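Need residues for this backbone.
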């Protein structure tokens, strides 16, 4: 390839740059690293090369012949040279390849002398630090719509109330009514068998289904008393609250883990575990499966606060597991 001024990367004067670039690209392809902590695909490698090419062109114009000459001061000058005509996302990618080169230094010969982005060199390097926007501002540029903080706060507070305060009484009430329903069904079967000893046909799929529906339409005094004691006028209201409880468990797991929908859907009974770290501290984890950016589903773990364990426990009991 030919740069401005007719220079080529294959010119003898730039032999070190050529060899270093080839080694970096091969290392980035074969060695786990970067923000995702794994080797990149061939398609991503092509994108990295286009970003690296921009850096190489600037280095040649500046008279640099190796990456070992790239001090933080020069990296800041490169960041400033990109100007204001590029989109912030494009600038982040172009500067990210500099960070990536530094992060792979243990596998390279022509190494950068130090971390490329220093606070004292101003705003351009703030965008470049770690090859991405500062975490506190990245949500402003997200392509996925973000839930406003005031709404998210209200959702999580309500979900915590359901999981930590209301879950126990709700599930106890559900279990008492379910036990009462078993007695109702048994009594309906006895009366029905006396009246129709040979059975009879109906619009339902079978006789058992008919009896189940018939029993569900009956209210016992005990069931009515249970519901009234908990502030419900009907079983339907209780069912709505149980659905809200299930939703609350989802919100707690999602909000405190950052997991995607597909990853949350992979959670199974026993997914919440506690383990002691090297310093004796106990940490909580959710065990699931990650799918995005993976060639095949891959087991993964997410560190979470202990309240997520409560949500998992409630969800497990709610499902009858």
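Answer:
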């Amino acid at each position: 390839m030919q740069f401005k001024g007719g220079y080529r990367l294959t010119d003898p004067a730039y032999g070190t740059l050529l060899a270093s670039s080839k080694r970096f690209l091969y290392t980035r392809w074969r060695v786990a690293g970067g923000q995702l902590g794994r080797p990149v695909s061939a398609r991503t490698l092509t994108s990295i090369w286009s970003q690296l090419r921009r850096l190489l062109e600037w280095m040649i114009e500046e008279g640099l012949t190796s990456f070992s000459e790239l001090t933080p001061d020069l990296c800041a000058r490169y960041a400033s040279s990109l100007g204001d005509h590029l989109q912030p996302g494009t600038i982040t990618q172009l500067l990210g390849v500099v960070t990536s080169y530094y992060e792979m230094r243990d596998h390279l010969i022509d190494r950068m002398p130090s971390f490329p982005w220093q606070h004292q060199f101003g705003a351009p390097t703030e965008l470049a630090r770690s090859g991405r926007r500062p975490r506190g501002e990245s949500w402003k540029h997200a392509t996925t719509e973000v839930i406003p903080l005031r709404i998210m706060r209200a959702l999580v507070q309500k979900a915590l109330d359901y999981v930590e305060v209301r879950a126990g009484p709700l599930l106890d009430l559900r279990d008492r009514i379910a036990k009462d329903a078993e007695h109702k069904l048994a009594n309906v079967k006895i009366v029905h068998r006396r009246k129709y000893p040979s059975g009879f046909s109906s619009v339902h799929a079978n006789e058992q289904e008919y009896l189940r529906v018939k029993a569900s339409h009956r209210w016992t005094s005990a069931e009515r008393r249970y519901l009234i004691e908990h502030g419900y006028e009907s079983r339907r209201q209780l069912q709505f609250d149980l659905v809200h409880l299930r939703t609350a468990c989802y919100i707690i797991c999602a909000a405190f883990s950052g997991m995607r929908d597909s990853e949350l859907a992979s959670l199974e009974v026993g997914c919440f575990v506690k383990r002691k770290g090297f310093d004796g501290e106990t940490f909580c984890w959710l065990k699931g499966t990650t799918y995005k950016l993976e060639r095949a589903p891959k087991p993964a773990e997410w560190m979470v606060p202990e309240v997520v364990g409560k949500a998992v426990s409630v969800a497990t009991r709610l499902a009858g597991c």
